[in-house]
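Quick one, T. Sequence first:
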Amino acid sequence: CQPKGGVPRVKRFFSGLFAALVVVLSAAPFLYVFVRSFLSPGGVTFQYYYDVFLASPKYLFRFWKSIGMAVCIAAGQLLISVFAGFGFAKYKFPGRNFLFFLLMILMTLPVQVTLVPDFIMLGYMNLLNTYAALILPSIIVPLGTFILTQSFKSVPDTVLDAAMLDGCSKIGVLFKILVPVVQPSIVTASIFAFYWIWQDFFQPLIFVGSPKTFTIPLALNMYTQGVHPGLDFSDITSVARIAEECTALPVHPRHPYAGDLVFTAFSGSHQDAIKKGFAAQDPDALWEVPYLPI
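Structure tokens:
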């Protein structure tokens, strides 16, 4: 005969064991990377941290700038999601269900779908190659609105009605009742927003062209490719001339990036399209020459 309460204790034991195993397996890669960061062929060392945080102040400056940008974007997403989720969850207006359906459709679209329209609009607003080009398109993301809408719906309307009968305004209902109740969902949406923008590589690569405004992922990519992020390639022709003077070797005219005749490397049909693009290009308009993005 099994003792009373024995089965629950066994279940709790194995549940705890399974949870601990999941935690260990999840944390093992991070612990491995952290421990390896202190190891070198000669033993334990702090040289890697010195090289990053002290010997490379520009990297540390980019690190804090990237954190500030990610915090601004996460705060903007959270603010918009709170108000939008409150509207979808607690207000009835024509087209609400249709708009919420469109919101869910937008959640399935990859960032590449909206990249070209965003690039064109930012170009007309003269915001390319600035941090505003990264912040403005990123603060409107449907995932946070979806999460908070579902969380706000779980709060009974009777609670809100009672608060309004006591004299609480709608803004007060939102920030004094709903927001404290759904704090776990708000934290989840904030973590998703911060993580997504912190590791984003594609949009900064397109919208930010100057190494001075590179985010951490772009700077790390340049480090791994052997290119110091402090270099300025905005005037590639001058870079090519300096390289020729220092090395006494000519830069090939058809070099993929710095060649003087790089456009001649395209096929005949491409050259024809480029020629027509130059002919149709308005000097005061946005650059739209085919196959030659800037």
